[in-house]
Amino acid sequence: MSVLISLRDILTLGGPVVAILMVMSVLTVAVSLYKLWQYAACGVGRHKILSQALQAWDEGDRATARTRLSKSSSYLAPLVEVAMYAPDTPDLDARLDAEAGLALAKLERGFRLLDTVAQIAPLLGLFGTVLGMIDAFQSLQSAGSSVDPSLLAGGIWVALVTTAAGLAVAMPTSMVLSWFESRTARERVFADKALRTVLVPGQSIKPEPSAAQPLAAEHA
Q1: pTM of the model
Q2: pLDDT, position 158
C-alpha cells in the first residue's frame, strides 16, 4: 500500500512526463518477460544434444547423429535435419541460411522497442526537468521582491524527479537489451557453425609421406 502511495506521489509531482515514463517501464517489463518465455520455449542456449549430434555427424557416424538429433528440442533442429536428409538439394545452403536468419529475426523481435525506451527515457526525463525549471523560475519572477528561497528549492527538486525517473527506466532497459543481444549473437554464431558442420562435414586428412621418408627406409 505504501508503495502505491509513493508512486502516486511521484506521479503527482512529475506530471504527465512521469506518467509516460511509467507506461514505458510497464512496456519494458512486459517485453522482457515475453522474451524470456520465448527464449525458454525455443531452447535458446540449450544445444547440448544438438551439439552431440553435430559431433557425431562430423566424425562420420550418421546413424548416431540422426538419432541424437531426433531428441533435440532446439529451434535449429529442423534446419539441421533438412541438411542431414537432403544434402543434394540445389542451393540448400542458401535456403537454410535464409531460414536460420528468419528464426533469429524472430528472437530479435522487441529489441527495437527496448532500444527506443533506453534512448528516449533519459531525454524525456530531461525534458520534464526543463519544463519544471521553467515553471519554478516563472513562480520566482511572479513573487517579485518577496522571494522565498524554499519556493525555488522546492520547484527545482520537483523538476529533478523526472530526470531521476527517466534514468531509472533507461538504465535497466539498456542492461536487459544488452543481455538479450549477447544471447542472440551467440545463437547466430552457433547456427552458422551447425549448418556448416552438416553441409561441409569434416574429413580426416592424412599427410602424404615426404621424399625423405623412403630414403630413410632404404638406409635402415
Answers
A1: 0.74
A2: 72
